[in-house]
Write a structure and sequence with these properties.
CATH architecture: 3-Layer(aba) Sandwich
Number of domains: 1
Structural class: alpha+beta
Number of strands: 11
Helix content: 40-55%
CATH topology: ECO RV Endonuclease, Chain A
Strand order of the largest sheet: 3-4-5-7-8-11
Distance between the termini: 50 Å
CATH class: Alpha Beta
Number of helices: 8
Length: about 210
């Protein structure tokens, strides 16, 4: 377990800040990623930036590496040289968490046969008005769950004949990970506040600058 990440969960002020601010910031992320009332897939990237910004705020730029090579398919950020994957999902029964994005059925099968977690995970479950939380899942815990439930139960392959968008973690795998004794968690009351959000305002202000 990464002891520096554990500091976030042990710091009462930090815990309260996450509980207070994350719903508002993720709501803004949804507004920023929406068009005609529908949330686009880019919301995941905006949420990821919010979590990375949390690490930068807590630990400082010198201790957080944000420029991760595109070849690192699982790693989103490094904190004190420890790689971390960031996953966010909406819903009471989380599903659709991607392990790899590919449309190739053969590559999906090959990936599922060889996949092993390469880093710790920050997992955020958003369930507006109905619970969810902010979780830290160590790499060792992920290995243990794979061993306990089996690779076939941990990984969900796309159905043949469909338009696949990648290989996913199964609902069972996510539930086992979130309930594991070594997973750290911060419960969050996901409540939306009224936000006066104007998506084009900052761009207009930049155009107006001399």
């Amino acid at each position: 377990m990464n002891q520096r990440i554990k500091e976030i969960f042990d710091d009462k002020e930090m815990v309260k800040k996450i509980q207070d601010k994350l719903p508002k910031l993720f709501h803004i992320a949804e507004l920023e990623s929406s068009r005609a009332g529908k949330i686009g897939m880019e919301v995941g990237s905006v949420r990821e930036k919010i979590i990375v910004a949390l690490f930068l705020y807590k630990f400082g730029e010198i201790n957080v590496k944000t420029e991760i090579p595109i070849t690192e398919s699982e790693v989103d950020v490094e904190v004190f040289n420890n790689p971390i994957s960031i996953k966010t999902i909406t819903g009471k029964n989380p599903s659709g968490v991607k392990l790899i994005w590919t449309v190739d059925a053969e590559k999906s099968k090959e990936f599922s046969e060889k996949y092993l977690p390469s880093c710790d995970m920050i997992f955020v479950q958003i369930n507006w008005a109905n619970g969810g939380g902010f979780y830290y899942i160590p790499k060792e815990t992920q290995f243990e769950v794979i061993e306990n439930i089996g690779r076939e139960s941990y990984i969900k392959l796309p159905k043949p004949g469909t338009n696949p968008r990648g290989v996913e973690m199964s609902c069972k795998a996510i539930q086992e990970l979130l309930q594991h004794k070594n997973t750290l968690s911060i419960p969050i009351n996901w409540k939306k506040e009224i936000v006066d959000f104007k998506p084009f305002k900052r761009w207009i202000e930049l155009w107006e600058q001399q």
